[in-house]
Amino acid sequence: MKLFTNKELLNLAKKGGYAVGAFNINNLEILQAIVSAAESEKSPAIIAVSEGAIQYAGLAHIVSMAEIAAQMASIPLSLHLDHGKDLNIIQSCLENGFTSVMIDGSHLPFDENIAITKKVVEMARKKGVSVEGELGRLKGIEEKVSVSDQEAYLTDPQAAGQFVKKTEVDALAIAIGTSHGAYKFKGEVRLDFERLKEIAGTVEIPLVLHGASGVPQPILEKAERFGAKLPGAKGIPDEAIQRAISLGICKINIDTDLRLSFVSALREVLTTKPEEFDPRKILGPGREAMKQTVQSKMRLFGSSGKAI
User: Fold this and answer.
1) How far apart are CA 116 and CA 128, in angstroms?
2) Which of these, 36, 76, 177, 229, has the minimum number of CB atoms within 10 Å of its CB?
3) From CA 80, how far away is CA 294, in angstroms rounded?
4) How far apart are CA 143 and CA 34, in angstroms?
5) Residue 116 to residues 42, 84, 97, 204, Cα–Cα distance (Å)
6) Catalytic amino acids?
7) Distance (Å, rounded) from C-alpha 138 to C-alpha 155?
8) Which residues pair with 254 in a beta bridge?
């Protein structure tokens, strides 16, 4: 198959009442895990790439891997720039095969966010690429994105309506209380579902939830059993994700859970088989662990069996 745009995938999700997972990649093993899981679940999937991942793996390598994966796949995939802030990187992605880009102007004043988002929309339209914007900020750390408690704020529903109308973005990432990273909450999980409901009633385009990893306890315990130090890590409960989808979320970003799955499997191999030095036998279990995590997310999101 060809690479699809996020607009194509998310419009179907909105009509069908499910969400498509956007899974961040940094290397071949992660990509293989995502695509293999999508094939097993007959689910669409979004291959998400951060600016940091581009610096790590190289733009040409990432695009080549994704295009080959799409050509061989029987399910729809898109290639999406996650949290794009550098216009030069965004332009490179547009010119080199990405089918969706996110412009993250959430750190800017409202009018400046509109201006830069509108500019990226104009750039992307020439290439037939879809655009995700963001309004409101999430706490936590993800790649180059760091927002303190003081800076974090939730998305205003009326502002969201103005933002979408003026920028003409294809999807909107909103802040309703989720957080980047493995340490999302110090106390009780509190997401503002009433705010989400109001935003969904104000804008017609698909809505996106960032910072949505669950930090599953079994994976966390396994990682810590083999030496990881992750005290206080906590994620978003499955029931909260399901409710968010029922209220209009169509795209859900997952990165932390993949990292935890990968690291827990690698730690187990390195601890229990200290004589092993074949990278394939060390990385292979990590790839399988990530595949299982992606499959569980696709079932949770309701995208299993929804491949075009």
Assistant:
1) 18
2) 229
3) 17
4) 20
5) 36, 11, 21, 21
6) 82
7) 10
8) 23
Dihedrals phi, psi of 46, to nearest 5 degrees? -110, 125
DSSP 55-111: HHH-HHHHHHHHHHHHHH-SS-EEEEEEEE--HHHHHHHHHTT-SEEEE--TTS-HH
Hey, is 126 helix, strand or coil? coil
- Write the CB contacts of 306 (distance below 8 Å, at least 6 apart in sequence): 12, 13, 16, 18, 42, 43, 44
What is the C-alpha radius of gyration for the chain, rounded to an integer number of angstroms?
A: 18
Q: What is the pLDDT along the chain (308 residues), one digit of tens a residue?
A: 899 999 999 999 999 999 999 999 999 999 999 999 999 999 999 999 999 999 999 999 999 999 999 999 999 999 999 999 999 999 999 999 999 999 999 999 999 999 999 999 999 999 999 999 999 865 554 445 444 454 457 999 999 999 999 999 999 999 998 766 654 445 566 789 999 999 999 999 999 999 888 988 999 999 999 998 988 887 899 999 999 999 999 999 999 999 999 999 999 999 999 999 999 999 999 999 999 999 999 999 999 999 86
164, 172 Cβ separation under 8 angstroms? yes
* CB 112 within 8 Å of CB 151: no
Token reading at 52 = 């940091």
Dihedral of CA atoms 204, 209, 210, 216 in degrees, nearest 10, equals: -170
Q: Which residues pair with 179 in a beta bridge?
A: 139
**Distance, CA of 103 to CA of 84 (rounded, Å):** 5
